Amino acid sequence: MTTDDRIRLHWYLPSSGETRQFRQGGTNVVLPDRDSAGPGGFRAPTLSYLTEIALAVEEAGCTSVLVPTGSSCEDPWIVSSVLLAHTRTLRFLVALHPRTQHPLLTAHHAATFQRLAGHGRLALNVVTGEPGWEARRYGDHGDKAAQYARTEEFLRIVRPLLAGETVDHTGKYFATRDASVTAPGRDLPAKPPEIWFGGSSEYARPVAARHADVYLSWLEPLDMIMEKIKWLAEALPEGRPAPRFGLRAWLLSRDTAEQAFADAERHLAGIDPAHAARARALLGARDSVGQARGQSLLEGAGIEDLDSLHVAPNLWGGFGLLAGGSALAFVGSHAEVADRLEEYRDIGVSEFILSGFPNLEEAHWLSDGLAPELRRRGLLATG
């Protein structure tokens, strides 16, 4: 088995904090005050807590951490830069919105990070987002077509800048003249940081096909992911190699399947069905094709019928009742979850960005159980 045939694990960093009370949404929650989390409390995204998570997943064998972006998160560039000094090999997948940064500023940040961090410890997750309150905070009142048009223009500028080229550009959303991030004595690494990109709409497909090094999808059943891989391949420009494929998912992996599903169902214990219904309504109203695809898998499912949350073997939908992002989780014994990851690997998925609830505890389960199981099978890439 070659390195390219192996699985690379990545982790999600809760940079706006998290709580042990899943009724609040779990990871990256926004609470009015620290005490509103109720029993279990709120874990602020302090340097010490984020460092604990980063060191735990580095020890487990994760290739990188995804550092999210958004007005509720701590700034991903600053978080990544600080954690760089506390880790040895961990890479940082820095998320960014084209609506919040000029391409030259992004390329400048990336160039500085690479020069100080050393080669290979940076990748960029370019997030288009969706219309709504978060976009309006940054003065973005465009529809999805406009947002993806801005992203495509952003990438047309930033990719050559990251490669050390000088760029002149005048477009609808950005303009720059004689832009460059190279200077005497400050050359760029030979290989630019990878571009990771997600989006399930028809607006996203051509952007991903032209620019993504890694295409990201929320976790879906195997047949849906196979269709999505084909959907993207059909849009590739002639001669451009297909991007690698990645999945973003929740994880709950235990020594036995019985323990895993008991722990999963315990997260839902005591949740008021009316509260769950309100959360589902908010999730269903989002202008996101990826979110809609995930929520469609839970149609008719609910906390009143726990069996309804079993979407496919070891794919569980309980997290998707209350939290945004992936509607599904890998849940089961370490061996079962490794089986599922291997199945996705066999259809072309090589990157898995995982997160747990809470993240620190699940990172230890990863380190003690799932990662060793993948190593025993020769499936886990080391870089």
Structure description:
With 383 residues, the chain is of the alpha/beta class. The chain has one domain (3-260, 331-376): Luciferase-like domain (TIM Barrel), CATH 3.20.20. The protein is 37% helix and 19% strand. The chain contains twelve helices and 15 strands. Strands 1-4-5-6-9-10-11-15 form an eight-stranded parallel β-barrel, surrounded by eight helices. Strand 10, helix 7 (222-233) and strand 11 (244-254) form a beta-alpha-beta unit. Helix 1 packs parallel to helix 12 (359-376), helix 3 crosses helix 5 and helix 11 (334-346) crosses helix 12 (359-376). The longest helix has 19 residues, at 144-162. It is globular and about 60 Å long. The model is unreliable at 28-32 (pLDDT under 50).
List keywords for this structure.
383 residues; TIM Barrel; eight-stranded parallel barrel
Number of strands: 15
Order of helices and strands: EEEHEHEHEHHEEEHEHEHHHEEEHEH
User: Mean pLDDT score, rounded?
Assistant: 88
Class in CATH? Alpha Beta
Strand order of the largest sheet: 1-4-5-6-9-10-11-15
State the CATH topology.
Answer: TIM Barrel
